[in-house]
Amino acid sequence: MNLVLYTLRRSLYIIPVLLGVCLIIFLLFNVVAGDPTPMLLGKNATVSQMAELRHQLGLDRAWYYQYFDIVKSAFTFDFGRSWQSKQQIVEIIKQGAFPSLCIALPGFMISTIMSILIALVVAFYRGKGIDVFVRFLCIALVSISSLVYILFFQYVLAYKFSLFPIAGFEPTLPDLLYYIPLPIIIWVILSLGPDVRFFRTIILDEIYQDYVRTAKAKGLKEIDVLIKHVLRNALIPILTYVVIQIPFLVLGTVLLETFFAIPGLGNTVLNAVNNSDFPVLKAFTVLSSVAYIGFNLLTDVLYALVDPRVKFD
Amino acid sequence: MAVISAETENSSSKKVQITKEIGRSLWQDAWHRLAKNKLALACMIVFSFYIVVSLLVAFGILGATWSTTVGESYAAPDWNHWFGLDIFGRDVLMKALVGTQVAMSVGLVTVMISVPIGLLLGGISGYFGGVVDEIIVWFCSIISSIPSIMLLITVTFILGRGIFAIYLALGLTSWVGLCRMIRGEVLKHKNRDYVLAIDALGGSHRRKLFTHILPNVFHIVIIDASLTFQMAIKSEVILSYLGLGVQDLPSWGKMIDDSKLELARGVWWQLGAATLFMFLILLSLNFLGDLLRDALDPKLRGQE
Predict the structure, then answer these.
(1) Are residues A72 and A97 in the same domain?
(2) Where is the domain boundary, A27, A52, A76?
(3) A-chain residues within 8 Å CB-CB of B153?
(4) Do A131 and A184 fall into the same domain?
(5) Which residues on B lie below 8 Å from A274 (Cβ)?
(6) Which residues in chain B touch residue A293, judged by CB atoms under 8 angstroms apart?
């Protein structure tokens, strides 16, 4: 019962946050960005043309109507049409979601599982040679721009040694498997550095707790302590870290998608930036924020479910 | 006999050392630990070297001639031009040096915008509590709900391309983490005895918060600054790739972006130079951040 109340109260907190997010988006696009019509019509537009377009786009209405439109779109997902392609933005997002997830989902799962395993091994040998080496390696890995990894591996693995196709995407099954491995491999390489570092810290935080000493004093083997006690307790922060990344998965592929010509959401964002397509950018900002808020709520509820120490007050 | 006397000597010298360590403040202690650490020293030398290079470029002593053509297009590296030439026959090393100044300024200005905002809002929020706290926490949740890459793209895009847009976009979007941490620490500190003592002496809110509490949580700022600094440098690369980067000057991001068309022709030096320059500064900042955290963590005191 307590949990239900907690979930309910926590859900209510979404409302002010969502209204605030919409306010920021409104301020950015409708106030700071200024009048988009000269950009859309070109230099030779007449004043009446500009006024007409402003009316068409609904930019001549009172500010609270424009703000309310954004708030409404956060619930109905009706983002209107793209200025560039005149397509319904919901349709664009539906089309782009599949290619994006083809790369992001396997990449995310493989890198998370690999990182947790590596972090466990490193935590087991903490302070020894392999731990020091992995720590150095992780810091070195995160000190290189992600763009460099993509350029380098695309060049070496696809161009030089022709192990993979250079770029492209095919949504049907046999061909799909031909195109996605390289982007997934690069995704995993990109995530390993920060993930292993984070998970190692989490696990080491647990390893110095009193209950670990007790477990060892009971005569449990180090490996049993690590798997049965430490990992179970460390799972709570790990879970938080993993769940909160999910809404970013789709956007995380912006760079990979453009390099491998994958027609996903990341590519859509880039096109929108290049074409000053405000509604698409707005839609993506609203949608990703809603996803973030939703998953944040989910993490909090999961946290309360898993961890008996969380009090519902 | 000799062994025993040596032992007593040892223990007495240890005692002296311990009392010395107790007498040091947190910062002196941290400084001593860092100075003892060769890795930290190396990182600080690299960082100072980058600052010197940036200053030399800023005053026009170094790299002022980066835009002049000095040879053939895409000439390979040789002794005169260590990193070869680019498509217009410009020296890649000069471009990388100017890029150093751009990157360091991006890092520095971002930190200078984000740290005061985070420190001030976090301090006020934690210290005063109540409605002010709720509003600031609400504001933090809003900013962190918008994925940073979208926020960054949007703000840079709307402010118009150029280095000032990058400064502002990075600075205005990266203070939330610091704000939350400072708030948490100030909450812990505000009811401690030393603050109550100032209260009893009639100290004002301002004196309690700024003169007494904030210096005690300042180590968080240093660690956060080293992370924000490198985050800014990395973000500049991504913004450059998205076409939202620095306009008139060469930057590491633009050099890496350019090289996507060069690699297929075997021209690796532009990518190599930018990556190497970036790698060294990011590596030392990462190590420094880690070592600072260890050095400033009071829990680790006396455990070495």
Answers:
(1) no
(2) A76
(3) 269, 273, 281
(4) yes
(5) 243
(6) 145
Contact status of A38 with chain B (Cβ, < 8 Å): no
Contacts of A32 in chain B (CB under 8 A): 158-159
User: Which pLDDT tens digit goes with each residue over A264-286?
Assistant: 888 888 888 888 888 888 898 89
Q: Is A311 within the bounds of a domain?
A: no
Cβ distance B150 to A296 less than 8 Å, yes or no, reads no
Considering the domain architecture, whether residues A65 and A106 belong to the same structural domain is answered as no
How many structural domains compose chain A?
2
ipTM over 0.90: no
pLDDT digits (tens, 9 = 90+) for B150-175: 888 888 878 877 888 889 989 998 99
Which residue in the block uniquely carries the two structure tokens 């680019």?
Answer: B86
Q: Is the pLDDT of residue B86 over 80?
A: no
Residue A225 DSSP code: I
Q: Do the domain assignments include residue A292?
A: no
Nearest to A254 among B143, B149, B290 (CB): B149
DSSP B85: B
Instruction: Mark A204-215 as b/e (b = at least 16 C-beta within 10 Å).
Output: bebbeeeebeeb
Query: Tokens in use for B240?
Result: 């450059």
Q: pLDDT value at position A19? A: 92
Structural domain range at position A51: 3-76
- Judge if A55 and A164 occupy the same domain: no
B144 or B31, higher pLDDT: B144
Q: Would residue A52 count as lying in a domain?
A: yes
DSSP annotation of B49 reads H
| Band (A40; pLDDT cuts 50, 70, 90) | confident
| Closest to A203 measured CA to CA, from A236, A242, A246, A245 | A236
Do A137 and A52 share a structural domain?
no
Q: Do B238 and A281 touch (CB under 8 A)?
A: no
Of B147, B241, B290, the CB nearest to A255: B241
Task: Test B157 with A273 for CB contact under 8 angstroms.
Answer: yes
